[in-house]
Amino acid sequence: MKRLIGTLQEQDFDALAKIRQSLHAMPELSGEEHLTASRIKALLTGFSPDTLFERVGGTGMAAVYDGLEPGDTVMIRCELDALPITETGKPAYRSKHPGRGHQCGHDGHMSILLGVASALCRTPPTRGRVVLLFQPAEETGTGARAVMADPRFAQFNPDHVLALHNLPGYERHRIVLKSGRINCASRGMRIRYGGKTAHASMPETGHSPALAMASTIRRISMLSTRGPLDEAFALVTVVHAVLGERAFGVAPGEAEIWATLRTVTDKRMECLVEEASALARNAAKEHALTCRIDFDDVFRACDNDARLIETYRQSAADLGLDVTELDEPLRFSEDFGEYAENAPSAMFFLGAGTDHPALHNPDYDFPDELIRSGALMFLATINRLLRSKISA
Fold first, then answer.
1. Are 60 and 78 in contact, with CB atoms under 8 Å apart?
2. Cα separation of 187 and 299, whole Å?
3. What phi, psi does 256 have (nearest 5°)?
4. Other Cβ atoms closer than 10 A to 355
5. What residue spans of 191-347 are helical by DSSP H?
6. Among candidates 292, 230, 286, which has minimal Cα distance to 256?
7. Helix-strand-coil split of the chain, %, nearest 5
8. Which domains does the chain have, with CATH numbers?
9. pLDDT, tens digit, for every residue of 265-286?
10. Are residues 372 and 15 in contact, defined by beta-carbon separation less than 8 angstroms?
């Protein structure tokens, strides 16, 4: 791949790897990415964008590179936020914040976009514009909507929206593509049962939510189809539950259940929400309890534009990168799907290694060598979309 690097040299990738490791060491959670954004601002300033937007959708940053001639606007998005996970890996640059870590690889995605910024600084597009968006709060599903609700988003007005995500389970540098449905819809469901405490020796004088909690966990779990990822697919994963207090003398009066609902389509999600809510309310009624249901971390289903996927396919061929075509969507969710309401959008996936720790595993760490193939893929795709002369 050396002959294809062009305006990105070996020393650039060495510097980007060090930046990635420094970002890895200082992870910040969704909506709290203030120091990360400050660091990104300083780095982007060094890459001389024509316009630099701060606090986009909260803590987001956007760097705009104008071409010499009018043309389309290509927006490329990466993520700023980390996860509430304690890192168990032992790299020298491991997280300095206990309970927080970049176990999804957003530190690598940011470094890839900084590589694109470096190339654009040296060789701006000949026509059109490139917007590099560093988006906050992807992990909670709120970041993309906040960015699009920002009045300044109208100034970006993208014609094409691009993104990538690293993907363990595939050999490194392999490009993984699928047009149409690519990421599942999901949302977090929180069920709160309210009853009445009692002395543990006389539980009949209160209203314990224990049986309602047990039956609800069993019944909503049975809503999972566990079949192929088609329009009928549904998965309910109970992720947290708490009952009463840690006191042997008190029969519980409150309970809380957290579950993640997952479907391939938004329409199927609406049905699953109704089914799970009905089960929870019926259990409350059966046991004379109050019931409150809330939803959080709401992600819509994500679709890839077929023409942009074909452009990625051609870019991979230009770079000599192998391609795998997916037959069905991936189970995990992405708020990137929100941008499809504004312009054609597509995400490609970048193999992180067949035996690499999975995303969100506590020992996951982004492979620095992927910065090269990710940056080159974006530059090659910009060239094709803008018919520009940015060297990749």
1. no
2. 6
3. -145, 135
4. 7
5. 210-221, 266-286, 306-319
6. 292
7. 35, 30, 40
8. 2-183+301-386 (3.40.630.10), 185-298 (3.30.70.360)
9. 999 999 999 999 999 999 999 9
10. no
* Distance (Å, whole) CA 346 – CA 85: 28
| Strand-pair partners of 235 | 262
DSSP 144-180: HHHHHHSTTHHHH--SEEEEEEEETTS-TT-EEE-SE
Q: What is the pLDDT of residues 124-138, one digit of tens each?
A: 999 999 999 999 999
With a CB cutoff of 8 Å and minimum separation 6, the contacts of 231 are: 264, 265, 267, 268
pLDDT in tens, 3-34: 333 467 888 999 999 999 999 999 999 999 99
Beta pairing partners, 227: none
Length of the chain as a residue count: 392
**Sign of torsion over alpha carbons 102, 330, 113, 340:** negative
Which residue ranges in the chain fall short of pLDDT 50? 1-6, 392
